[in-house]
Design goal:
There is one protein chain. The protein is of the alpha/beta class and about 290 residues long. The chain is built from 11 helices and 10 strands. Helices cover about 35% and strands about 15% of the residues. Helix 3 crosses helix 5. The structure holds (2R)-2,3-dihydroxypropanoic acid.
């Protein structure tokens, strides 16, 4: 049952027509706070999202009306990087395929050719977006003896690059040179389908894509093709372009690990997200500076 079916979120029919009454909206990432809703919400002062992503909110429309938007950065970085690295390992070492074999009664004992995967140690990880979550991913990669490349508009200073062991590179070159590519960028007009057909085609044979950012950062049709006919060797995905829909062609692929948008789903992290959201809400309503204003 979805949150909407449970009667939760902005899709709740009880909410229909009501936003004019509210000064504050506390939303989740599937609640679309678009220009039409903002126009109806005539008393609105603040939109508090319990997420780091803000792609479900029309920021320009909020700005034009002087409505404050807050999110929950920082508190979910380690959790998200853990899941991203978990997906990377699960694909490289074929953990979910192994699980299916064992549960299906197909394990006949050790064999030299059973589920031979690809090494992680010594390989190159390309990180798209070296912000808080990307940096947490880079620290994990370092612990696993990987080389790290990163692409983003603003280059970090040398000391930060050294501390993370990450080398700045152009985004096209990152796709060509990495064995694993992990997305940690927000969804914006610039990053929509940043994983394009051309970039997927330029990747190394057998390489792996990990996405815990937003599904729309990837051309999903091109991804399906690149998994079926190469060069991609696998993918670990937590997010999809049209959630909760997952492309049927992905469901039947052995070389793909699919998670249901759970990167921040740790009890401790969800509590921290809720607390930060409430601090933001109180701050704005009490006319103080919000801890994490977008
Ligand atoms: C976010 O906060 O934007 C994540 O996608 C939810 O865990």
């Amino acid at each position: 049952m979805t949150w909407a079916e449970k009667g939760l979120g902005l899709e709740d029919p009880r909410f229909e027509g009501a936003p004019g009454d509210y000064e504050a909206l506390v939303v989740l990432l599937h609640d679309k706070v678009d220009a039409a809703l903002i126009a109806r919400a005539t008393r609105l002062k603040v939109v508090v999202t319990v997420s780091v992503g803000v792609d479900h909110i029309d920021l320009a429309a909020c700005k034009a009306r002087g409505i404050v938007v807050t999110n929950t950065p920082g508190v979910l970085s380690e959790a998200t990087a853990d899941l991203a690295f978990g997906l990377l390992l699960a694909v490289a070492r074929r953990i979910c395929e192994g699980d299916r074999i064992v549960r299906g009664g197909g394990f006949r004992g050790w064999a030299p050719d059973l589920l031979v995967g690809t090494a992680v140690h010594g390989k190159t990880l390309g990180i798209v977006g070296l912000g808080r979550i990307g940096s947490a991913m880079a620290r994990r990669a370092r612990g696993f003896g990987m080389k790290t490349l990163y692409a983003q508009r603003t280059r970090l200073n040398e000391a930060m690059e050294r501390a993370l062991g990450a080398r700045h590179i152009d985004v096209d070159a990152l796709f060509q040179e990495s064995d694993f590519v992990s997305l940690h960028c927000p969804l914006t007009e610039e990053t929509r389908q940043i994983v394009s057909r051309a970039r997927l085609a330029s990747m190394k044979p057998g390489s792996v894509l990990v996405n815990t950012a937003r599904g729309a950062c990837v051309d999903e049709d091109a991804l399906v093709e690149a998994l079926a006919t190469g060069p991609l060797g696998g993918a670990g995905l937590d997010v999809y372009a049209h959630e909760p829909e997952v492309p049927a062609a992905l469901l039947v692929r052995e070389n793909v690990v699919l998670a249901p948008h759970i990167a921040s789903a740790e009890r401790e992290t969800r509590e921290a997200m809720a607390e930060l959201a409430m601090e933001n809400l109180l701050a704005v309503m009490e006319e103080r500076e919000a801890p994490s204003r977008v």
